[in-house]
Design a protein that fits this description.
- By secondary structure, the protein is α+β, with helices and mostly antiparallel strands.
- It has a single domain, classed as Alpha-Beta Plaits (2-Layer Sandwich).
- Helices cover 29% and strands 28% of the residues.
- The chain is built from 3 helices and 4 strands; from the N terminus they run βαβαβαβ.
- A 4-stranded antiparallel beta sheet has the order 2-3-1-4.
- The longest helix is centred in the N-terminal third of the chain and has 17 residues.
- The protein is globular.
- The protein starts with a strand and ends in a 5-residue tail after the last strand.
Amino acid sequence: MSYVMAYVAAVPTDRKDDYVRLASAMAEVFKEYGATRVVECWGADVPPGKLTSFPLAVKAEAGETVVSGWQEWPDKAAQEAGMQKAMQDPRMAIMQDVPLDGKRMIFAGFDAVVDV
């Protein structure tokens, strides 16, 4: 089964175009270094919660939209090697203008256990 790196973050709603441009550029790099699939999602129905929710998890502020995405890799070793190469790629300098607060970003790796 594959390995998935996933994240959730909050992006200023008025910077959607910047986010999509950045995410698209980064997706190309990740694919080049071994990701089998890269998905980026703009929040469409992300309700606030009282105890837990995506907006609470990333401390989304007024005027921000919650985004989520994931990269699928053949396995954890491929993800680690590919990510190391990707982070050294000069094209990733685009990350200097990331339209989000990385301190409020949540990311984690998962082993896929069901893939239908």
